[in-house]
Amino acid sequence: xxxxxxTVTWIVVVVTVxxxxxxxxxxxxxxxxxxxxxxxxxxxxTSPSGTGGTLGEGTGPAASAAAxxxxxxxxxxxxxxxxxxxxxxxxxxxxxxxxxxxxPLVSMAPAPMGLGxxxxxxxxxxxxxxxxxxxxxxxxxxxxxxxxxxLDNGGPDTFTVQLNxxxxxxxxxxxxxxxxxxxxVVDYTPSTGSLSLLDNIWNFSNPAxxxxxxxxxxxxxxxxxxxxxxxxxxxxxxPTPFTLDLYVNTSTTVNATTSIGYSTVRFGYNILNATxxxxxxxxxxxxxxxxxxxxxxxPLT
Length: 301
Prior knowledge:
Layout: E1 3-6, H1 69-78, E2 96-98, E3 101-103, E4 120-121, E5 128-129, E6 133-134, E7 136-143, E8 159-168, E9 170-172, E10 175-178, E11 180-189, E12 194-203, E13 216-218, E14 222-224, E15 228-237, E16 242-254, E17 261-273, E18 277-289
Antiparallel strand pairs: 1-6, 1-8, 2-3, 4-5, 7-16, 8-11, 9-10, 11-12, 12-15, 13-18, 14-15, 16-17, 17-18
């Protein structure tokens, strides 16, 4: 896996982006119940990202998938997924390419909001495309205090903060060109100081976003076949003021016995309290995509 491609980042936050070194390869074993070597068939609330801003033409949920959004929710519900753990891409997004520039326009909510990067800059009167790529992205949020109330929310003062990126050149089976939207998410409730971590992974490699469980080799969470992957991380009580770091990084993990290389995504966090110092930190989810390819024999970037 070569890089993470930056898309929409935080909602109502201050963003700091840094490049961190990728972890080294380690030996590993498969997740119980996983099916090594089988390639993929190619919150009931929706996230304000997923419009495909820097993905380019032909990636991300397409117009043909818009009618399938209700069925995606129904399949997840049938699998017992709590809908508050599911952050859908915007199936109604209609990005298009004109003059080599992606125009991430949407005709229906949710539209992108907060701070974001869509891969387009204009310094001379002409929009010019660009791509930001790294093996790791980090976002930093500092909250001194917050007062929210949303009538359409089951928890009127609960909101989410998300660090979102899109992987490129992800190996699944013998295909080295996979693309997946990864979301490192925090639910926060100011009235109680409750902070919970969770993540989602959606397949942007095909218009239907189909993602069977065989997409993954090893993981901490739950693949919901054939919809998406999610993991519920730890929860903490963190009253304001505090600083939150979220990060995602990619690497190739090599099985010491078989020499098979697995594209890997890690979801991490660091929570600092203004008075008490470090509250918690670590990697709460490590996901290895299924592969049949040996490292060193074929590109696994």
